[in-house]
Amino acid sequence: MKIIKTTDFFGATIDELLKLDELGGTVEEDFLFGHGENVAYFDDLKEYEEEKKDFEQWMCEHEYDVKEVFETINGRLAFVLVKYNYNIHTGGIDVE
To answer: Which residues are paired to 78 by β-bridges?
Structure first.
């Protein structure tokens, strides 16, 4: 599993990512949710491994795939999720 730091991917400093938006969320959260359709957070790899089976079942039930895995500025893992038919190359939904 490739883990990308949010500071590297979004090209922003920690201070920039910590800024609050008008709803009280951070810019980092806005970037993550804007990069997919949902985001699941885990405190660390240990927590992910412990919850992996349940998480994978939940993703299957809700028809999600993992698009990217990020390490947030506070060291948590953020799994950015997209629907099964999401086209990662065009950023849109494939229509058959």
So the answer is: 41, 70
Nearest by Cα to 52 from 72, 73, 69, 75: 69
Structure-token match 């992910």, residue found: 48
Determine which helix (DSSP H) or strand (DSSP E) holds 77, and give its type and residue range: strand 77-83
Given a contact cutoff of 8 angstroms between Cβ atoms, the answer to whether 50 and 39 are in contact is: no
> Residues 26-69: pLDDT tens digits?
999 999 999 999 999 999 999 999 999 999 999 989 999 999 99
Distance between the two ends of the chain, CA-based, in angstroms? 30
Report helix, strand or coil for 62.
coil
